Amino acid sequence: MEYEGLLKLVKKRRSIxxxxxxxxxxxxxxxxxxxxxWAPSGFNMQPWEFVIVRKPExxxxxxxxxxxxxxxxxxxxTAREPxxxxxxxxxxxxxxxMDYTTAPVYIILLGDPRTNVGLPMFIRYDDGLRxxxxxxxxxxxxxxMHLAAASLGLASQWxxxxxxxxxxxxxxxxxxxxxxxxxxxxxxxxYPAIEPPAKLMREKKEMTHFDDCGVADxxxxxxxxxxxxKARNWNIGAHRRKGEKHED
Length: 248
What we know:
The chain has 9 helices and 5 strands. It has helices spanning 3-12, 26-36, 56-76, 93-97, 121-124, 127-151, 165-175, 204-207, 221-238, and strands spanning 19-20, 48-53, 105-111, 155-158, 182-192. The longest helix is centred in the middle third of the chain and has 25 residues, at 127-151. The N and C termini lie far apart (46 Å).
């Protein structure tokens, strides 16, 4: 693939929260997995497993489990620091975001920490480094699934609440996943029902540094806070349906 083609694909990949219910063929799903399994991992341990969920009864149960902890995530927003501006009350937003339930396919990416035994001994005995290498490999596979989906004209969204303790425990129990495996994240796939808004991006020049850069070359706390506020406002808009207003 030429550079321009790759850049176009990366820009095309966006989190989509509205899906058409049209089914995905086995061939399409297989192509997504085929790309993901070629992802780089620390010392080629390939610590991943993929669970494809298509049966409505399992999808509905997963949605139900995630919905059970949504009130907690909503309540925690009231504790947000005042300098960030408006509190993301998510009035109606929680339910709207659950539109991903119409996606025909959920793929749960599992990690197998038992593969860490194959890492060099100095990594095995360094908890932070071992975990970083293991998680980085899983993140690579997850990103590859997103890119594969975009190349096939699919929409994708990650559902990170599947990694929380309660949801992870219950999903593993429902699907018969061995206790020693971990849920890294879940991606939902389908055909897009909407066009995503333009993505808020930092300027390349402000994040690129060369050689002996100093403190002055990096963002100040005030600049980080300012972008954080912009990003939060962008997120509120990105989660909102067209014509919908956020309640302050």
